Amino acid sequence: MNIGAVHNSTRWLARALVLGLVAGFAIPQALQQAGLSQVGLAQAEEPRRQVPPMSERAYQMLSNIQEALDEDDFQEALRLGDRALGTRGLNDNERAQINNMMAFTHFNMENYRRAMQHYERVLEAGENISRGLETQTVYALAQLYYLEEEYQRSLDYMRRWMDSEESPGPDAYVFMGQLHFQLEDFPSAIERIERGIEVARSRGTDIRENWWQLLRFLYWEQENYPRVVEILEILVRDFPSREYWLQLAALYGQEGDEERQARTMEAAHAGGFFERESDYLSYAGLLMQRQVPYRAAKWLEEGFDRGIVEENASNLRMLGQAWQMAHEVDRAIPVLQNAARAAEDGEIFARLAGLFLEREDNAECIEAADRALDRGDLRDRPQTYMVKAICQFNAESLADARSTFSQCSREARSAGDERTERSCRQWMTFIDSEVQRRERLEASL
């Protein structure tokens, strides 16, 4: 996986976490504290506020609403709540409790705007409601404004909630980090999420995968790649996946640590995370770059055998090159022959010509060179002429060899390749002298 792919996938993941992180927080739990359950919480709170007491009449109205909610009859709960709010003589605390249950009902119906309106009315009661009800309402509003993508208002409510809490949990810090992320204040987002992770560690609670994911993205945006590496090292340990292993390998490569890059790719393979063609090709390319071609060829063959790596000209050429680099000529030739048949240019035939020269198979060498020159689109056309000419010389076809070396010289001159031109002319001189030597020898007999 290259660095561009790492960046794209990381950015996509950060955007996907927008609702994923919130889903891990306590929206439902906070809202489920609505109604009668919050009365008990308020009474147990220290220090207590002197809130107006709840009358039997108000308590009964809340009980009726709660019964409707227990039966998931939200329309009935709203009807009872509207009727209760229209009752004269309710004090601020009683009205706030009814609005609280109305907000919870609207939340369950996914009427978030209406839920927020009722929560705002709860807070209008000021100190006439318990601190517990106030803090829970503030927290619920923070998260509802988040869902409505009003991130600044959500952040304002979270700051208010944090000010009221002596020891906020890790979720709250990470939620604030998410809000700063949405507002593109990345330094503040990092600070909050790091703090959330510290709190989780100190309390011995789990650190969630998506916290690390978002933190990884934020450090990536800050171009703090050493810290990204540290986070990926945590992710591959605690939440191993193909994505993390290959991203970590790519970053090691970016930092020039090829040894770690290779070991990481090896670990990913051993862990069974090679699932795509690019995994095998990237790893094989790295091994060939590190001069370990035999292992590269073996892993490529495994990819072919598993049906993950496609047997096309490019991939077969890579396998053939790996075998050639490993000096396994007999293995390289049939692979490259298959690749050459599917290729559009003559490059693979040119490579085959070189292998046949190495194996001293002159006829095959000459044929492969001719096919390479016929197809064309060669990186080094003069070199292909030279290989062909040498094979012709080895086959004792001196006249043909001299003619081919002459063509090699012209091609090299045209390409500005002085070294090859000089070499071809030296061969021509040697052939001329050899022909003369043979003629003198024959005349003397």
What's the total helix number? 24
How is the CATH topology of one domain named?
Serine Threonine Protein Phosphatase 5, Tetratricopeptide repeat
Q: Nearest-angstrom radius of gyration?
A: 38 Å
Percent helix: over 70%
How large a portion of the residues is in β-strands, by DSSP E? under 5%
Order of helices and strands: HHHHHHHHHHHHHHHHHHHHHHHH
Count of extended strands: 0
**Main sheet, how many strands, which sense, barrel?**
none
Overall residue-averaged pLDDT value:
87
Task: Give an account of the 3D structure.
With 445 residues, this protein is an all-alpha fold. Among the domains are: 25-166, Serine Threonine Protein Phosphatase 5, Tetratricopeptide repeat, CATH 1.25.40; 344-445, Alpha Horseshoe (Serine Threonine Protein Phosphatase 5, Tetratricopeptide repeat), CATH 1.25.40.10. It has helices at 3-23, 27-31, 36-44, 56-70, 74-85, 92-108, 112-123, 131-147, 151-164, 170-182, 186-203, 209-221, 225-238, 242-254, 258-270, 277-289, 293-305, 313-325, 329-342, 347-358, 362-375, 381-394, 398-415, 418-444. The protein starts with a helix and ends with a helix. Residues 5-46 have low confidence and may be disordered.
Provide a short characterization of the protein structure.
With 445 residues, the chain is mostly helical. Among the domains are: 25-166, Tetratricopeptide repeat domain (Serine Threonine Protein Phosphatase 5, Tetratricopeptide repeat, Alpha Horseshoe); 344-445, Tetratricopeptide repeat domain (Serine Threonine Protein Phosphatase 5, Tetratricopeptide repeat). It has helices at 3-23, 27-31, 36-44, 56-70, 74-85, 92-108, 112-123, 131-147, 151-164, 170-182, 186-203, 209-221, 225-238, 242-254, 258-270, 277-289, 293-305, 313-325, 329-342, 347-358, 362-375, 381-394, 398-415, 418-444.
